Every structure is written in C-alpha cells, then in structure tokens.
Amino acid sequence: MLRAFLKKNMKLPELFEEKMRRLLGEDFSEYEKHLDDPAYYGIRVNTLKISVEDFLKICPFHVTKVPWTDNGFYVDREEKPSKHPYYHAGLYYIQEPSAMTPASYLPVEPGDRVLDLCGAPGGKSTELGAKLMGEGLLVSNDVSISRTKALIRNIEMFGIRNDMILCTEAKYLVPSMTGFFNKILIDAPCSGEGMFRKGNNEIKNWQQKGSEPYAKLQREIVDDAIKLLAPGGMLLYSTCTFSPEENEQVIEYLLEKNEDLSLVPMKMCEGFDHGHPEWTLTGREDIKQCIRLWPHKIKGEGHFLALLKKADGEQPTFKYEKIKKVKLTPETAEFFKNCKMDIDWSHVREHQGKLFYLKEDIPEMKKVRVLRKGLYLGEMKKGRFEPSQSFAVALAANEYEPYLSFDINDENTVKYLKCETLDVDTNTEGIHLVGTNEFPLGWAKIKKGRLKNKYSSSWRWL
To answer: What is the spatial order of strands in the sheet that 384-387 belongs to?
Structure first.
C-alpha cells in the first residue's frame, strides 16, 4: 500500500504494485512520490478560431506552455476556465496536458480524410478538426451512444464544419470504407493505469477486469482500423495505461501481422521515454520508436503513443452517396440572404426539415449508425427558419448580418449565456447573430429594442 493512497483511504492493488516495481525498477520510488502531487490541468487553443499568438493577447488566465504541443497550456484549476465566455465561444478546450499528445502527434493536413475511431468525449476530435482548417473530412466515432452526446457538443462548440459523427463498431465501416482514411487516430479503450491518481473508480475497474480483456479488444480494433487506412496513410495508436500487453505488444502484434506497416519516429520531449523492446514477445528493436509518458517524469498523467505508416500502393475507389436536391422554404431562402458563408447547396442534406452541410463526398454506408452528417444549419419550420446553435458558433462574425456584439466585460455577455431576455440599444430588428467582441455565441430575435434569447438551453451558463 502506498502512502499517497493511505491518505485517500484507497488501497493500491498488490498485483499492480508488483508490476510497477518490475517495470520501473529503481524509478518506482519516484513514481510512488508522484502520487502525492496535485494533478495538472490544461487548456488547448482552438486554432480554427484564433491563433495562439492572438489568444495569448486576450487570455484571461495565467498560463504556461505545455512543451509537447504548440497550442497547449497549463492552467490553474482554481481559475475555472469553464466559467468564461471565451470557453462558450469555443476558443479553447479544457484537457489534461498529456492527453493532448495523440492528436498533436498525428500529422494531419488540410484536405485529409481523418478518422477518430474512439472519439468521445471529443478532446482529440476537436484538435484534429482544427488542424484540418475546414478542408477534408473528419469522421468522429464512438461505440457508446451516451458518450456521443458530449462528442457532438464539443465538435459543435469548436465550430467544426466538416465532421461526420458515428456510433458504430469499426468492423461495420470496413465494407464501405476500406482504404478511405489517410489519417486515423485510435485512443484505445484501456485499463487506465495511468489515471489511478484520479481515485477509486479507476482502481476498481482494474481490479475487476485487469489488462487482458482490453488487450484482446485493442487487437480487434486495430485489425479493423488497418483495413480502413489508405495506402501511404498514417495511424496513431495511444492509451492511458502502463501495461505492455496493451501498448508495446499491441504494436508488435500489428507489425508482425502486417508487413506493409512500419513505425514512424516521433519528436521526443524532456521526460519522454521510448518504447521497450524487452517488454515484447519478439524483442523488436523498432519498438523503441514508440513513446511512453510516465507521470513522475513529466507534468501530466501516463500515456503511450505509437505512430505507424502503411506502405504506398494503389488507391481504392468508392461508391459515393447521392444527395437529393433540397427545396428551401421561402423563409429559409430569405434567412440565407444575410449569410455570407460560402455554402455549396448541392452538398446540403435535408432530414425531416433539418438541414446539414458537408461539402466532402462520403461513401455509401450500410449498418452504420450516423448521428450527424456535417454542420447542422437549422430547421425549416412552418412560417420560419430556426438557425441552430452549432451554426452560430461555426460562423465568423463577418459571415452573418446583422451581428450584435457585447464586450467581453459587459454584464450582458454572461446574461445572454444564461438565456436571459435583454434590452439592447439597436434599431435593427429580426434575427441577429450574437457574440462577444468578434466571437459568435448564438442567435437572438430583436424587436423594439427587446432581445428574445435564442441561445441553446442545453448550453446555458449555470
């Protein structure tokens, strides 16, 4: 039993302690001391909406740089970054610092087709979407329908326009999307040993399941994911556990089974450790190109990363989904006269009056639960068009007129986010895009100086 866990009335599993002593050797005492340390908290700037340089000019918190990512910063938890209008404007994501590494280390470029296979709650997907800069396609998936609720909200809050959200197993994507993605991220379900400091739930889960069922599941996931990866494409595999069976041995399994795969070297930062060939079954030396993050060596929790590349080859062809032409109601057409966003209406889909925009072509899919195809624009209702919350935060301030801006220090900014009705000084009536300074927040309808709040109640500032 470790003293850190005695303080919290928690008992570290004996088998886990024995394993960690075996893995870490003389470093185990440093790991033990680390369990007394406070956790680190971070924010990651949404470069889809603002540059890091410009964000630092307006950042309301004291922040210090996270060394392994260009747009990540440590922040004191007491600063409450979730209680600031910039959070609601989608300018940053709150994320544990070491969890920023997977999306940061996958080299996504605008125009890529990217799959985040285990995407909820959206920390990795939001960064991947930002790196695409609106070009290409991001498919965010999770097998848990309850977890996809947070995934959808975070994707929407970040203003990502080119995302499709699924709730399915990877095997159901294989028939229609074999070789479709040139970048894939798998932040795999794991035993969570790197997160034991969080408390009893993680420890109880480990005691009930251990590593074995996760190692089996991870092999099933990567087997299907490799089929989805295009020739010449890259896949990043990550976990938040220490278990070699879930880390080095999964990568060893992939490499032994797929001769067209190879490991890609990644940037090492201070405190990073390499992968350990001695923890594999075959002793492959290329396993050293993996990265381990130990919580007693860095300012963050435990993680494992491996970046793989598939050999070049012939690119597959696909049968793409046909899109029915949408007939807009007069009220909808009138609304979009005020919208300056460039929309290709041949790629707008309509479902029960709701409009979705995704400019990238997608293959026909069967037996796949699709939750969202692109940016939700709004709903055509009798006598009116109701623009969506996600559409508002996906727009730039100059992409819709009229735009009503509250200063970041104006009390009306928070009142708006609390869904209150406001009195405003404007002669312009009708639907307005509302924001703080140049960052949109939502919609409102103004009549005779009275603002009827259209901010989403499910996003409301509490």
So the answer is: 348-351, 354-357, 375-381, 384-387
Residue 452 lies in a domain: yes
Residues whose CB falls within 8 Å of the CB of residue 53, separated by 6 or more in sequence, listed in order: none
pLDDT confidence tier of residue 3, bands split at 50, 70 and 90: very low
**Size of the chain, expressed as the number of residues it contains:** 462
Cα(425)–Cα(436) distance, integer angstroms: 15
pLDDT surpasses 50 at 1: no
Residue pair 164/370 in contact by the 8 Å Cβ criterion: yes
Q: Is residue 375 a contact partner of residue 390, using CB atoms and an 8 Å limit?
A: yes
Residue 5: per-residue pLDDT: 43
Q: 138: closest CA among 147, 72, 159, 265?
A: 159
The CATH number of whichever domain residue 454 belongs to comes to: 2.30.130.60
Q: Does a structural domain hold residue 402?
A: yes
* Residue where the block lists tokens 């087997």: 223
Range of the domain at 450: 397-462
Active site residues: 240
Q: Given pLDDT bands bounded at 50, 70 and 90, which one contains residue 201? A: confident
pTM of the full predicted structure?
Answer: 0.96
Other Cβ atoms within 10 Å of 246 Cβ, number: 26
Over residues 151-174, the mean pLDDT reads 98
| Cα 296 to Cα 29: distance, rounded to the nearest angstrom | 10
Name the strand (E) or helix (H) holding 218.
helix 212-228
| Predicted confidence (pLDDT) at residue 347 exceeds the cutoff of 50 | yes
Identify whether 187 is part of a domain: no
* Alpha-carbon span 375 to 390, nearest angstrom: 7
pLDDT > 90? residue 422: yes
Number of independent structural domains in the chain: 1
Tell me, yes or no, whether 122 lies in a domain. no
Contact assessment for residue 352 and residue 378, using Cβ atoms and an 8 Å cutoff = no
CA dihedral sign, ordered 328, 332, 335, 336: negative
User: Which among 375, 382, 361, 116 has a CA at the least distance from the CA of 236?
Assistant: 116
Nearest to 371, CA basis, from 384, 389, 358, 387: 358
DSSP string, 44-99: EE-TTTS-HHHHHHH--S-EEE-TT-TTEEEE-GGG-TTSSHHHHTTSEEE--GGG
**Encoded tokens for 288:** 């050293």
